[in-house]
Amino acid sequence: MEKLLKEFREDLAEFREMTDKFYSKEVNMKEYKGFSGGFGSYAQKGGQASMLRLRLPGGRLTKEKLKFVVDSIEEYGVEKAHFTTCQTIQFHNLDGKAACDIMEKALDVGIVTRGGGGDFPRNTMVSPLSGVEEGEYFDVLPYAEAVSDYLLGFIKTVKMPRKLKVGFSNSPANVTHATFRDLGFVATANGTFDVYSAGGLGNNPRMGVKVAEDVQPSQVLYYVKAMVETFLAYGNYENRAKARTRYMQESLGVEGYKKAYLEKLESVKANENLDIDVKATPVMKVSDGTKVTGKRVIAQKQEGLYAVAYHPLGGVPAVSKFAELYDVIKDMEAVEIRIAPDETIYVVNLNGDEAQKVLKVTDDGAQNLFETSVSCIGATICQIGLRDSQGALAEIIHEVRKYDFSDGVLPRIHISGCTSSCGTHQIGTLGFHGGAKRVNDVVEPAFTFHVNGSDQQGEERFGEQWGMMLQKDMPAFFVELGKTIQAENKTFETWYAEEPEKLKTIAEKYLLH
To answer: Are 125 and 74 spatial neighbours (Cβ–Cβ below 8 Å)?
Structure first.
């Protein structure tokens, strides 16, 4: 790993040179995007600023890494940050020098930005409470971190058709979408993994193909190498629109794909030694005897310890929040932060007294289920974004707050600025992706409405598209929905389960025809 990090550091001179050329207008946006993505950085819409994606395997933000984030925000005047649905932190509105400097200094604390974009293995995802969650099958984090390190080695050695996303799930909650990732490891009750591959969200989404059952955790790297080899052999290098792993189900057929993958797996097992021996680090911290309860408090499987949830609206915290969190937890034993795929963060391994302190410093976040809604960064920043998903969510929440609906009356929603599903709209109870609609000869901002998606293992489904809704009408839709359900003294979950046609009746008033 040290050798690889040294090579990554040496590559930064080339990144600085290309970034200088971009900002001096010597290379265009398209050329720069093709180069910079592999370093985890993209120019933002308009080409006047950059974003930088900090890879955090499993969303794990240790105190050392949090301190780096805090120091970077202060030193470079970072004014916007976003927790992503791939469990990373994105810095926004950076100038070229700041992007380069932060990227280089990040390596000193083990944060690698290489492969954060472009046609490379992306951040390895993990159930955020792995190792501390009551009822989990086992702690999958150590295996995910080993896979993350292994995948970094492919960044400089292979040319994949497109990006590769790998996820680990510790329970049927399946919050990392491991059953429909490019490659997913799904923990089972007997301490092994079931393996799924060639799935994914975005255009033409696909559920994953189960390619193996009861895999010993020590064997996971064989399955990763087989996935890479299969993608290299059968992925589409000619058409980028069809260059994701899920299109191999289309080109080979499901059974043909599974056969091709298992052939690669057999070859890898015959020719390589990729066994690993990793162990979870037990949490030795003990309770202080203080009991804490609340909507944002999760009792850990370690008796007397807690995790505290914090969801900044839209996944965008005030940048000052990082310093506030660091100041609170810096002297707390074994405490760290985990970023979840729904843009929530969890502060874990807290005793009761510490949990109360963290609750206090995070009381500015979501106040109910609806306010934990998920949004990508949106079109004001993203080059390919079509709609301002952040702005749309903010408008809806602002209007809904006037009515003080009971918690659960409105569900969490998922909003993406385009079809790419960075806001995971396809698996939301209610989801939206951005577009436009011509109304009375005027092109209006609009979102396509998705209904009844789910990522729960065994119940996975992509939401059904019901039509388009003007952005300006979305707040009124949610107010009417909330009023209707509140009047019946129900939550959305029970209301929709009992009479789903009522949602269609309300939605029809707002959908365009």
So the answer is: no
- Asked if 248 and 234 count as a contact pair (C-beta separation under 8 A), the reply is yes
Distance CA 206, CA 199 (A): 5
The number of beta carbons lying within 10 Å of the beta carbon of residue 104 is: 16
Task: Name the helix (H) or strand (E) containing 43.
Answer: strand 41-43
CA 46 from centre of chain:
25
pLDDT digits (tens, 9 = 90+) for 295-305: 999 999 999 99
Question: Could you tell me which residues are beta bridge partners of residue 206?
Answer: 200
Distances (CA, A) of 191 to 109, 138, 216, 222, 431: 32, 7, 8, 18, 34
- CA-to-CA distance for 186 and 278, rounded, in angstroms? 17
- Tokens for 512? 């365009």
Cα 282 from chain centroid (whole Å): 26
Token couple for 434: 């951005």
**CB-based contact 180:136 (threshold 8 Å):** no
Nearest-5° Cα angle at 421, 308 to 73? 50
34-59 burial, b for 16+ CB within 10 Å, e for fewer? ebbbbbbbbbbbeeebbbbbbbbbbb
| Cα dist from 354 to 296, 307, 324, 337, whole Å | 14, 10, 14, 14
The separation between CA 267 and the C-alpha centre of its own chain, rounded to angstroms, equals 32
Residues of the chain with pLDDT under 70: none
What span, in angstroms and rounded, lies between the C-alpha atoms of 493 and 422? Answer: 24
User: Do 308 and 328 form a contact (C-beta atoms < 8 A)?
Assistant: no
- How does DSSP classify residue 180? G
**pTM recorded for the entire structure:** 0.96
**Beta strand extents in 77-192 (DSSP E only):** 80-83, 89-94, 125-126, 166-169, 183-187
